[in-house]
């Protein structure tokens, strides 16, 4: 029996593109996926070289490579209607620390705090206290991600009044 490959493709699950690591100032994941041409201009212009080809070939920020200094060059170079003005807040992302933080094993480590210029990471008294994040100070720059020896830090969207 003949089998229509086109018909079969109708039933294939659509590939879902991960949008967890989008660039700063992106209006929305939909706006980004609908308009990004994957031209690569933003990758070339990023002075920190933290923009990589991510899921589906779309540009993503990779904090394992460094931090975002919010220069705005990626948003400025892009010709597509993807970004807000860089005078707006770049994103509603903050650092978040999971249970693999060495403090949970009573091991002394201050790597994240030492890399945080905003001084958003603090430790309670006690040699191995788990770091606390001050969300008012955290810019979501990602500078604390790469230095963490156990990959305990992620920069994730937080719920705000604006993005609820
Ligand atoms: S410059 Fe704009 S269109 Fe080009 S890859 Fe980057 S986000 Fe996509
Ligand atoms: S704002 Fe600047 S440092 Fe941050 S991702 Fe864009 S080009 Fe790179
Ligand atoms: S993301 Fe940046 S500002 Fe926030 S805690 Fe990490 S280093 Fe500090």
From TrEMBL:
Alphabetized UniProt keyword annotations: 4Fe-4S, Cytoplasm, Iron, Iron-sulfur, Metal-binding, Repeat
The keyword 4Fe-4S is assigned to this record: yes
Keyword match Metal-binding: yes
Positions that bind [4Fe-4S] cluster 3: 138, 141, 144, 148
One Pfam family cited in the UniProt record for this chain: Fer4_9
Function text: Could be involved in the maturation of NapA, the catalytic subunit of the periplasmic nitrate reductase, before its export into the periplasm.
Entry similarity comment: Belongs to the NapF family.
Known partners and oligomeric status: Interacts with the cytoplasmic NapA precursor.
Protein name as it appears in the record: Ferredoxin-type protein NapF
Biological source species: Psychromonas marina
Name of the coding gene: napF
């Amino acid at each position: 029996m003949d089998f229509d490959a086109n018909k079969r493709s109708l039933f294939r699950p659509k590939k879902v593109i991960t949008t967890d690591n989008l660039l700063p100032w992106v209006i929305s994941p939909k706006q980004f996926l609908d308009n990004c041409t994957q031209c690569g201009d933003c990758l070339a212009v990023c002075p920190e070289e933290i923009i990589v080809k991510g899921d589906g070939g779309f540009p993503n920020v990779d904090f394992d490579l460094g931090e975002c200094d919010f220069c705005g060059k990626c948003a400025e170079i892009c010709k597509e209607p993807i970004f807000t003005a860089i005078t707006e807040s770049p994103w509603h992302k903050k650092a978040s620390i999971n249970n693999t933080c060495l403090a949970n094993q009573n091991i002394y480590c201050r790597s994240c705090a030492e890399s945080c210029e905003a001084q958003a990471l603090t430790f309670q008294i006690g040699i191995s206290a788990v770091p606390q994040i001050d969300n008012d100070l955290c810019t979501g720059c990602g500078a604390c991600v790469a230095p963490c020896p156990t990959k305990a830090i992620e920069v994730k969207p937080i719920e705000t009044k604006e993005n609820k």
